[in-house]
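User: Structure please.
Assistant: Input sequence and predicted structure:
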Amino acid sequence: MRLSASLLALLPLTIAAQQQKPLGENLQSWLEKAKSYLPNAATAPIASTAAKAAATNVVPLTKDNWRSVLTPSTTDPFQGPESWMVFVTGGNKTCYGKCAAVEKAWNESAALMAADPSSPKLASFDCDKQPVLCTMWVAAAPTIWHIELPIAQPDQSKPATTIHIVGLNTTTTTASDIVKIHTEKTYAKRPVYEGALHPFDGWVAQYGLLMPLGYVLYVFANVPSWAFMIVISMGSRYMM
């Protein structure tokens, strides 16, 4: 009885300690504990469930829909900017076949963040499958783009779209690391992305040149150098 009383006395302290931990750490801790009670063969269904949850909660982006998807869902200026986390991954061509572990961590984090009503909206695209979008954004895999979409003010002015690009390690990144981008605002450690190639506010986007630039960069990245030499040679002969 004394042992039971001691355990009961320690229970509030344990709960208080758990409450002091960030949500991301608690969620990841619970997930790891759940995995520890299962045999290794049973972890495959967990990964499958995480992938299904990610498919439900994550919006796939393409070169044609990204503008319409990455639009604030409200017009109320008092609600502040709308947060998005966009996961950029790739296959053998753009990630050299090293993104599988990061994709698994992303899927797990998407399932964890689905339980948090304060989480940002989630989207993703694969540079192997969406090469033009990848070159339009000048994106690299694997990364997460944390985007704050501004809402137009009553005077119709629109603040800047704030972007932080977080690089992911292909071997050590965990679901907890990705969740912390939101819960602990680790994205703020990265500089704000600015410049002409900013996909929302850069002058290339403002003049409607983002899509043409994406195609041009895609061609330059995929056409063999010898083909360009032939074109240049033929062009120089024509000019002469």
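The chain has a mean pLDDT of 81.
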